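Tutorial, part two.
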Amino acid sequence: MCKKHFTGMITALALTLFGQASAQDRWMSIPPAASMPAASSTGTADVNGISMYYANYGDAAGTPILMIHGGLAHADLWAAQVADLASDYTVVVADTRGHGRSTNDGSAYTYELLASDYIALLDHLKIDKAHLVGWSDGANIGYSISASAPERLASHFAHAGNVSLDGIDPSVDTNAVFGSYVGMMAGDYGSMSPVPEGFDDFLNAVVAMWSTDKPGGLDELAKVNVPTLVVQSEHDEAILMKHSEDIANALPGGELLVLKGVSHFASLQAPDEYNAAIRAFLRP
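Running the prediction step on this input gives:
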């Protein structure tokens, strides 16, 4: 796809699909996720000393989509995206190490380690290359894979990621919407995790990762050759707009899409529009 055409298409999406916030200010709340559709297959992969839950949806030929969720979350938050995309793509979702149904072996969380887990999962599934859709920590993992194993990614839809600590909005610590997300994930953890009583320790371990600067930062992005769409929500509670602009400018050929009227949780707040943005990026 030529850059001029893609830029025009993305601009049109930004104006039409995300142009109007609802009267309820949809960015001020987080709707519950839809129910996951029936999977083609599910399983666990023994990777890097852990048991990693995954599920496959659809059976379309061509390059599959790997969807990586955000910190504290789990694969089932992608339900609306999976239900839509699996009609035309093979879609793979997984629970990141220590999240959802996946175990941890006591290792400290780092984006490099989490990236290596997902690369090992692709190996387990015999997937040479995938389109990556990453949200929040999922986008950060995607940036790490883009740097360490770019040959494994056909593209990267990178929503709400950051590559340095100065990209985080300091007000997120007291933001009520983000706080409600943490509470929601505490409940899900209790019903899904192999160690349901361990949420406080899990939260502290993930926050420690969030508080550690990423190696390479913006400078590392100049070497990335994976086609990447940097996606920023207009009302993101956690990621500063300027940081996403800087990421897009640092990436060779990087593009920026601003989702209007939504927050860090856009995939739940506006699933149809979010799905359309993914499809537009992946369309040949």
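The longest strand covers residues 50-57. In part three we will examine how such features are distributed along the chain.
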